[in-house]
Amino acid sequence: GRSAALVPAAGSGTRLGRGPKAFVEVAGQTLLARSVAALAPHVDEVLVALPVGTELPPGIPARAIVGGETRQESVRRLLHATAAERVLVHDAARPFLPEGVIHALLEAVLDTGAATAALPVADTLVRAGTGEQAGDTGCWGELVSRENLWGVQTPQAFLREVLLEAHAQARSQGHTATDDAGLVARLGGRVRLVPGDARLFKVTTPGDLALAEALARVWDG
Ligand code: CTP
Ligand code: MG
């Protein structure tokens, strides 16, 4: 069956503070161009959701639609703009996407109908507690076991029908989530965890952009 990459890229990049994030450059190439270039060789078509009033820059092998107010709404619109059997949803804000992760996801989705890149949590986890002063929540509360805890990344792969149904349910129930696999899991759907990659971090803050600049030197060769 046909496959499509769906790239939500319609965010405003508030935390980064450099305007719409998809158009921010890392070592001379935008986050959007990098993400699309990684996906395009592995799918039949690439669709991107852009901020209203913006255009797809030349040379990016994708079809553009206008995104929504939220990431969830942007993905929902992307889903309705393709007829592909399998979809790979990937944040434009994660520009370093190894091809092994794509292959693993496209295979895993045939088994369960949904799969996401994810990494076992490496840091010690703690829930913040209250200090001596009222309202001070910056103190060590209790340790949280990191056993079986994974950090969820994108790409996430789905049979399109499965994700369409999850979005339809979420929308009618007024439920919002930060990612698509969460919407499927919420309905009892199985989501395979596929090993992601540390380089798949999301460029969110100015510090992440510095990290991306450094990584680009190695990645671009
Ligand atoms: N996104 C989208 N439509 C929205 C909001 C976000 O397509 N209405 C996309 C972003 O472009 C990004 C991905 O979802 O590729 C992850 O979102 P995030 O990292 O939060 O990006 P922004 O929303 O742009 O950043 P911020 O939250 O700091 O404003
Ligand atoms: Mg956001």
From TrEMBL:
Sites annotated Transition state stabilizer: R15, K21
Source superkingdom: Bacteria
CDD domains for the chain: CDP-ME_synthetase
Reaction equations catalysed: 2-C-methyl-D-erythritol 4-phosphate + CTP + H(+) = 4-CDP-2-C-methyl-D-erythritol + diphosphate
Pfam families in UniProt: IspD
BP GO terms, sorted: isopentenyl diphosphate biosynthetic process, methylerythritol 4-phosphate pathway
The protein's Enzyme Commission number: 2.7.7.60
PROSITE patterns associated with the record: ISPD
Alphabetical list of InterPro entries matching this protein: IspD (IPR001228), IspD/TarI (IPR034683), IspD/TarI_cytidylyltransf_bact (IPR050088), ISPD_synthase_CS (IPR018294), Nucleotide-diphossugar_trans (IPR029044)
Ranges annotated as spanning the membrane: none
SUPFAM superfamilies given in the database record: Nucleotide-diphospho-sugar transferases
UniProt KW keywords: Isoprene biosynthesis, Nucleotidyltransferase, Transferase
Gene Ontology molecular functions: 2-C-methyl-D-erythritol 4-phosphate cytidylyltransferase activity
Annotated pathway: Isoprenoid biosynthesis; isopentenyl diphosphate biosynthesis via DXP pathway; isopentenyl diphosphate from 1-deoxy-D-xylulose 5-phosphate: step 2/6
Record site: Positions MEP for the nucleophilic attack: R146, K202
Keyword tRNA processing: no
HAMAP family: IspD
Assigned protein family: Belongs to the IspD/TarI cytidylyltransferase family. IspD subfamily.
Function: Catalyzes the formation of 4-diphosphocytidyl-2-C-methyl-D-erythritol from CTP and 2-C-methyl-D-erythritol 4-phosphate (MEP).
Name by which UniProt lists this protein: 2-C-methyl-D-erythritol 4-phosphate cytidylyltransferase
Organism: Deinococcus deserti (strain DSM 17065 / CIP 109153 / LMG 22923 / VCD115)
Lineage, broadest ranks: Bacteria, Thermotogati, Deinococcota, Deinococci, Deinococcales
UniProt gene name: ispD
